[in-house]
Amino acid sequence: MKRWATVGTYCGCGAPLAGAAAALEAFEKAAAAQPAKGRPQPRLTNVGKYVQSKSPALARKLAKVLQAHAKKVAPKLVQGYVQHLQKAQLMRLLHKDARGGKDTIDEIVANLGSADLGKTLTGELAGPMLAAFRRAAALGATQVGASVSTDQVDPKAVAYAEDRGGELIKDLADTTDDDMRDLLARAVDEGMSADDLSDAVQAAGAFGEARANTIARTELAFAHVQGNKEGWRASGQVAGKRWILGDLHDVPDECDDAAEAGVVGIDEDFADGISDPPAHPNCICDILPVLSDGDDDEDS
User: Fold this and answer.
1) Nearest partner of 69 among 182, 177, 164, 218, judged by Cα
2) Judging by DSSP bridges, how do beta strands 2-6 and 263-265 pair with one another?
C-alpha cells in the first residue's frame, strides 16, 4: 500500500517552500506540535487569510447591488400585496372562497426579477473568483516545489468561473425568491400596511450586508480551494488531500467529520457529500496536498 506524506504550509503562513522535501519537513514539525489524539485543532489557513484580505471590498460591492435591487423590488412587492388584499376582500364580500394565497404569492414573486439579481451578483463575483483561482493555483504548485504557467491555469480558471457562475445565478435567485415568499406570507398573516411591507423588504436579510459578506467569503473560499487543486494537479506530484479546520471553527459540525477522515484521494469525498471546503457558508477550512513517494510498503 502507498505511504502518504502530507505537505504544504501547515500553519497557513503561505511562505514559499524550496521543494517537496522542505514542505514535508515543515509539515512534520508542525504536525508534531499538534495533539496526537482528539479533535483536530483549528488554525489560520491560506483560505482564511485570503478571504479576510479580499472579502471586505467585494462584500461592499455586493451590498450595493443587493440594496439597489431591494429598492427596485419593494414597489412591485407592495403593489402585488395590495392587489392580493383587495381581491381577497372582494371575494369575502361575495361570500366566495378567498383561499389560494400561496399561488398568489408565487405569482407576485415570479415577477420580481430575481434572476436578474443573480446575474448581476455573479458578474461582480467573476473577476474576484478568477483572481482567487489563479493565485491559489500558483500557491498550490509552490507548496509542492513546482510551478505553473498562466497558459496552464487560465483555461481552468475561466471554466471554473463560468461553471460556478451558472450555478450561482440560479441559487442566488432561488434563495431571494424564498425569502420574499416568507416575507409576503408574514405580511398577510400580520396584516402589514403597504408602508410597513416596503420598509420590511428593504430591511430584509436577502438584501442585507450580512448576506453580501457571506456570499463574498464563501465564493472566494470556493475559488481558492479549487485553484489550489489545479496547481497540485499541474505539478503531477499530488495524489491526495487532508482537511484542515479554519481558525474561526469553534462549533463542531460537518467540517469535523471531514477533518477526522484523514487522507483521501484528491478527487474523493472526505465525508458524505463533502469533497472540498467550504462545507457551508462562511467556512474557511482548507485542504493540504498529499504526495505519494511511489514506494510500495505493505507494512506502512
Assistant:
1) 177
2) unpaired
* CA 184 – CA 200 distance, rounded (Å): 10
The sheet that has 263-265: what strands, in order across it?
2-6, 286-296, 238-244, 263-265
Output the nine-digit C-alpha cell for 125.
463575483
pLDDT (0 to 100) of residue 43: 77
- Is the pTM of the predicted complex or chain greater than 0.70? yes
Amino acid identity for residue 108 in this structure = I
Per-residue pLDDT tens over the stretch 267-299 = 999 988 899 999 999 999 999 999 976 322 232
Handedness of CA 113, 118, 121, 122 (dihedral sign): negative
238-244 and 263-265 beta bridge pairing: antiparallel
Cβ count near 114 (within 10 Å): 24
CB atoms within 10 A of CB 262: 14
Q: What 3-state DSSP class applies to 200?
A: helix
For the chain, the structural domain boundaries read 2-296
Looking at this protein, which amino acid is placed at residue 179?
D
CA distance between the termini of the chain? 7
Q: What is d(CA 8, CA 229) in angstroms, rounded to the nearest whole number?
A: 12
- Would you tell me how many other CB atoms lie within 10 Å of the CB of residue 144? 24
CB 184 within 8 A of CB 109: yes
